[in-house]
Amino acid sequence: MAEAKRFYVTTPIYYVNDSPHIGHAYTTLACDVLARFKRLDGFDVMFLTGTDEHGQKVEKSAAAAGVAPQDFTNKVSQNFRDLADFMGFSHDDFIRTTEERHKKACQDIWKRLLERDEIYLGSYAGWYAVRDEAYYAESELTKNADGAFVAPSGAEVEWVEEPSYFFRLSNWGDRLLAWYDENPDCVMPKSRMNEVKSFIKGGLDDLSVSRTSFKWGIPVPGDDDHIMYVWMDALTNYITATGYPDLESDKFKAFWPANLHMVGKDILRFHAIYWPAFLMAAELAPPQRIYAHGWWTNEGEKISKSLGNVIDPIDLVNRYGLDQVRYFLLREVPFGNDGDFSHRAMIGRANSELANDLGNLAQRVLSMIAKNCDGRVPAMDEAAFTADDQKLLGSAHDLLEQVRAHMDAQAFHEALETVWLVIRAANAYVDHQAPWKLRKEDPVRMEQVLYTLAEVIRHVALILQPYMPESCGRMLDQLSIAPEHRSFEASGPAQALKSGTELPKPEGVFPRLVEDAENNEDNG
Ligand code: ME8
């Protein structure tokens, strides 16, 4: 039997103490594009995002706001849902760690670990960074300008001494290394895999997985003095959403293990070391891949609340347009690398690549068709395609296979570059074939040329739908493509445009953006 085409992709669940910013939007956007791509490619997709609502950091923020933690999280979790709606994200589920289904899952995985003697009671004495919700070894710390000890992330640490349950992480180093070797793509990009391996080779200590000094968390089953370590709680969200602990549920059977946990590089260690170790220790399958992408800075500076340079994705979208922002974020920076946001680059790409390359191509071709072909898909004769026509059409037909390979490697920028090669070739073809001249000299050939171009535009719009759903939808509307003919099954010659089909009046899809000096001063 053919392997079921299923795809389960997750975002990190975001801490609710922060307002959603461009970094959060970026990670979820990457997952959204993959989820949309896979759906169009015939997969049954589950796309999960949500909020991480327990832990000391959230408890402190709630106290600072003068409200009970549950009321606080109810309010701020909504900001993340609102952002997801505003950005047009197509998640299938939004999980909150304060939900009952999640408490049940966490307590169950705890019991599985306890039953297998992977957890024991001891006491913890060491350094803890509330901002990272992470423990650090003394050897990892440095001193900041004020003389305080800080973690490698820059977060201040505090000395913690309390009774604690421990997970026997120290037993898992060799098995994790074997897992990476057997699954060389399970941590990506490659540089991150190396980072993870060398961390493990440095030796793993047992991990403190419960706290007693505050209350905002999931109680340890059978020992109410303890609450579960917030990362153990948070990571478990990925199986909660599949119906765990019901191992027989259709969802769990269909979607676990996840195909992809998308995360930022800041939380690689939790996902690529702790989480697979917890799962293997609980005799559950580890995820198939963890991809850790890079970090955005703003006009060269680290993004932080204290610097006051947090980029609000809602402002960006209001200024530049949703699809323009979606395109820019995934095109500007090779996925996996760090990147810098600048308004100039945003405007530059929206104008040169969207308005000029793609927008003009569609607008030029569709208005020539409107004017010269009676507003219908031009006539075409299979036998009359020239080598140039065939080359261009062939490159459009090949797009799906090439783009699919890039998407399976989370190489979003390369997928776009591949599409742009075809767009540029189509623009060169228009210039070279000069259909405006053919109008008088050889109207039959003009129709053949315009047909070829319209068919290329159809392919480009189909394949770019995951990145720019609204704009591509409008381009496909202008080609009179019915909604049921917009999946990737329609790519290739099988559902090619039919000559004579009536087309609506063409309209520009990508407006030119005007550089606004004030915006640059504000942010640069
Ligand atoms: O870490 N550039 O939540 P969090 C790119 N709750 N991505 C960025 C970014 C930036 N400047 N800033 C944030 C947590 N991100 C935990 C996760 S998962 C079981 C628990 C993105 O709210 C990036 O994906 O601090 C990063 O990993 C995530 O936001 C951290 O979100």
Verbal overview:
The protein is of the alpha/beta class and 524 residues long. It is built from 19 helices and 18 strands. The chain has a domain at 343-495: Isoleucyl-tRNA Synthetase, Domain 1 (Orthogonal Bundle), CATH 1.10.730.10. The protein has helices spanning 22-40, 56-65, 69-86, 100-115, 173-182, 190-201, 230-235, 237-240, 250-255, 268-281, 313-320, 322-332, 343-372, 387-408, 412-433, 435-441, 443-464, 469-478, 517-523, and strands at residues 6-15, 44-52, 93-96, 119-129, 134-136, 142-143, 149-150, 158-167, 187-188, 207-208, 210-211, 219-220, 223-228, 260-264, 290-293, 296-298, 301-302, 339-341. Strands 3-2-1-14-15-9 form a six-stranded parallel beta sheet, sandwiched between helices. The longest helix is centred in the C-terminal third of the chain and has 30 residues, at 343-372. It is elongated, with a radius of gyration of 26 Å. Mean pLDDT is 95; it is low at 518-524. It binds ligand ME8.
